[in-house]
Amino acid sequence: METDSTTRTLGRSGIRVSALGFGCWAIGGEWQDPSGQPLGWGKVDDEESVRAIHRALDLGVTFFDTADTYGAGHSERVLGRALGKRRDEVVIATKWGNLFDEETRTSVGQDDSPAHVRRALTASLRRLGTDHVDLYQFHISDGDPVRAAELRDVCEELVGEGLIRGYGWSTDDPARAAVFAEGPHCTAVQYTLNVLQDAPELTALSEELELAGINRGPLAMGLLAGRRSGAGDGDIRSRPPAWLPGFGDGAGADPEWVERIEAVREVLTSGGRTLAQGALAWIWARGPRTLPIPGFRSVAQAEQNAGALAKGPLTAEQMAEIDRLLKR
Hints:
- By secondary structure, this protein is α/β, with parallel strands linked by helices.
- It has helices at residues 46-58, 74-83, 114-128, 145-160, 174-181, 200-208, 255-268, 275-286, 299-306, 316-325, and strands spanning 7-9, 16-18, 21-23, 63-65, 91-96, 98-101, 106-110, 135-138, 167-170, 186-192, 212-216, 290-292.
- The protein has one domain (7-223, 287-311): TIM Barrel (Alpha-Beta Barrel), CATH 3.20.20.100.
- The strands form three sheets. It has an eight-stranded parallel β-sheet.
């Protein structure tokens, strides 16, 4: 069990990281699928993104999670530029499996072939400006488990070559996560976890198999940071796909989700926390291996998220009260 609430161990790797990671999907900016469906979070200011990353570093954040497809390569480029000579101070996680056109910033499909792993990693290393990735994650959530076993073996080869330090699967399926976990250098499973979307099976699996549980969507795409209004053009939340709950038709937050958030607001904002900080504190209290990665697009968001570190996890009594209020 961890004793320092501001750091955690990245699974079997033994690497110590800040208990809070920063998710870099949002700083990728606008991109889309072939039909024009937005896949990013809208327009971004790259210079503000760089300033936010620098501020996060200064506040003790050492774990940054991105993917080659975020912004069709743009997120990796911005992160690499921001880290610069401070690369060795941080742990970088990125992902592969999706294909994209950088020039048109369009997602163009998927590739789960073993050969693509090396191609994708080579391109990610170039965009990030580094010679290795600390955590390399398969990004096709519903990928074929048989093929995944082949990909796991390729990842083991990459570890042996010093190109990656560990690997994992970004999936919400415990059975799929367990396939990768059979590899000795599997370090993590990335899955959705927040106050409104608990994932007890994956949280238990990460503990049982000594994996870091990297938690995407910890703020429910902004709802647990107080977002209520609709998103602008170019933001995935303006035209939410079926896998993105909580935003109704894109005009605003789903009233049912708002009602549930209001039910637990008082508990989450206890101890001087903001709503977002309380949501992160809930994740830390779910288990010793959870590692939330909230998104950010500004220095102010970076400061608010990092500010949760000093306040630590919720208590067992507060966790029980939230379960009572949410009737679960």
